[in-house]
Design goal:
This protein is mainly alpha-helical. It is 48% helix and 7% strand. The protein contains four helices and two strands, in the order H-H-E-H-H-E. Strands 1-2 form a two-stranded parallel ribbon.
């Protein structure tokens, strides 16, 4: 998970509280998935990146430095956000230093 970087003049206590809550929730979910994967015999590393910059670059850098065998992620993009913002999953599939497994959560 990469924390969003918001310019100081846009940051408010409400936004900061939301980011902190979201960061904790995503880290807890990642740890839950890590526990499940390790029960299945898969070694997993969870990384939380606090540095500014594009998320794709951060994931690729972490995968390279850790000699990852696989990047697994959940696609959260929908038909409206992909044309406007792009898709992290699509970018990673094209440029990652190892295979990428993409899935979606059921609604």
């Amino acid at each position: 998970y990469k924390e969003p970087q918001i310019p100081a003049h846009y940051m408010s206590p409400l936004i900061q509280a939301y980011i902190e809550k979201e960061t904790v929730a995503r880290k807890n979910k990642a740890e839950e998935w890590r526990g499940w994967a390790e029960q299945q015999g898969v070694s997993v590393k969870v990384a939380l990146d606090h540095q500014p910059g594009p998320i794709v670059n951060a994931i690729e850098s972490q995968a390279t430095s850790s000699s990852c065998d696989l990047i697994a992620l959940i696609s959260q993009a929908d038909q409206f956000s992909v044309p406007l913002l792009g898709s992290v999953a699509r970018q990673l599939v094209r440029t990652a230093p190892c295979p990428v497994w993409v899935t979606r959560l059921e609604d």
